Amino acid sequence: MTIGIIGAMDIEVQALKERMDSAEVEKISTIDFYSGRICGIDTVVAVAGVGKVNAAVCAQTMILNYSPDLIINVGIAGGLAADFAIGDIAVAESVVEHDMDTSPLGDEKGFISGINMVKLPCDKRIADMMMNAVETVGGIKAQRGVIASGDQFIFKQEQRDRIIGDFGAIAAEMEGASIGHVCVMNNVPFGVLRAISDGANGDSYMDFPEFAKMAAENSIKIILELLKNIKGSVLI
Q1: Do the Cβ atoms of 89 and 222 come closer than 8 Å?
Q2: Cβ(218)–Cβ(231) under 8 Å?
């Protein structure tokens, strides 16, 4: 079994690359793909870059060149749930592209033509295992629900209100749903785990630089525990 792991920024996956045994690096489409073993599992790790297009290119390239059985998007996000605190974990049950809008043509907001869905379902087994990993690590709170992606850094109340109102999302970021979009098109199971780095509000641009590192460390702890659990599960 091969697991693909994608982060938008190096801070989100650097600790995983450092734990990789027998790592090999291949540059494709300006992206470095690190392949080796983490926790005894064949793993490919990549930094996609920020935004939906970068993430989609990375996911498609990873699928075509490494044939992962599962792709996990890991990193940080702005919290939309009222009781989220910095460092808490959001586990996606589904993902949406909140900036996809052909509603003037009669479509539902977020509707993705071709695959004809709004909410793209994550692999339930992986979401369950992510939540279990949070419990095992301890000291970190987690919620599961809809994670929304778009090519926008969310920091205005009207943005929050729109995304929560349209999709019931608990967190907002810029890559997960585009990775999910590619995975659905290729019939590859996927999961999204995000640590909260800011409140997706007027203080976000100040909170993000201060708390991003701590939030990313929390997400890495969960992913490492998840990999251990996968190693001992029927998924292998």
Answers
A1: yes
A2: no
